[in-house]
Write a structure and sequence with these properties.
Radius of gyration: 13 Å
Strand order of the largest sheet: 1-3-2
Number of domains: 1
Number of helices: 1
Distance between the termini: 21 Å
GO molecular function: transferase activity
InterPro entries: Acyl_CoA_acyltransferase
Structural class: alpha+beta
Number of strands: 3
Largest sheet: 3 strands, antiparallel
Protein name: Aminoglycoside N6'-acetyltransferase
Strand content: 35-45%
Order of helices and strands: EHEE
Shape: globular
Pfam family, one: Acetyltransf_8
Organism: uncultured Leptolyngbya sp
Length: 55
Amino acid sequence: MFADPAVTALLIDPLASNTRAHRFYERLGFQFVEQRRFGKDDCWVYSSFQSYEVQ
């Protein structure tokens, strides 16, 4: 998922009503951040962070 070391985080925002998407992303390790409104859509924001060891 993080093939480019410059990418350290991913944010996704499925609709608040899309509980199947919430479960899917949580199983992949995404963590709930907050609920937001984008236009007329209520969404849940999730993030996934990757840390790299400096060698």
